[in-house]
Design goal:
The protein has two domains: 73 residues, 2-Layer Sandwich (Gyrase A, domain 2); 142 residues, Cyclophilin (Beta Barrel). Helix content is 21%, strand content 32%. It is built from six helices and 14 strands. The chain is elongated, with a radius of gyration of 19 Å.
Length: 228
Amino acid sequence: MKSIKLSSYKFSVSLLNQNHYRLVPVKQDIGELLPFLAQQIHKANAKGIANVSATDAEILVVSDEPLSKHKTLFNKLSPKKPKSKTYQIPICFAKGLDWKEVESQTGLSKRKMINNILKTELTLSMYGFLPGFMYCLGLGMEPIKRKETPRKKVAAGSFAVGHKYAGFYNIESPAGWHVIGHSPIRLFDKNQQDSWIAIGDKINVKSITLKEWTSLKSQNLDLRQFQL
C-alpha cells in the first residue's frame, strides 16, 4: 500500500519495518491536525493496532495487520477539532536550572521571559519523546536551541523550553531542553488516559513561590484535583 486516506486527507505510506507504518500527508498543510487524528486512532482501540504517535509532520502506526484492514476506521476520523478546555499548571520558576543559558540565547531577562509566559496561553500540540511528555506551542519567541550537553536526569514535573516548544517532563528522564521551572502536581498517569490533557487544549501557567511549591507538593495533587 503506497497511500491511504485518514478522514478526507491522503497520506503516503511507507513500511519502516515489519509492522511500523509511516504516514506523511500528501500536499495539504495539515500538520496541526496530525496529533489529533492520531489521538482518535489510539482511542478507538482497534484490533491489531498496538501504538500510534504523531508529530506535526507525520504519523507512526504500529499495527500487526495491514493498514488496509483499518480503512473503515480511518475514513471515519473527524477533521474537526473538539472544543478545547483550559487548564492551569503551577510552576515554580525559582527551581529553573538553566536560566543563564536561556537568557543568553534569547537576550531576555528571567523576569521578562516569565512575564511573557504568564501572559501566554499555551496549546498542547502533541505528546511524544516520553510517555506523557507534552509539547506545547505559543511561546511567541525565537526558537531556543537544545542544550549542548543534555542533563542526565531531571525530575518529573520539570518545565522546559526547546526549539519552538514549551514542554513538561512528566516522568524522570534525561533532558536536552532548558529547564526553567518545576510543577509540584502530578501531570500524567499512564493508567488513566481519560485524565490526560487533550490535544488542542489550552494551558495557563501560574507562577508560584518556593513556599507554595512545598505546600502543593505535600498535598500530592494531580492535574484535575488542582483545577478544583
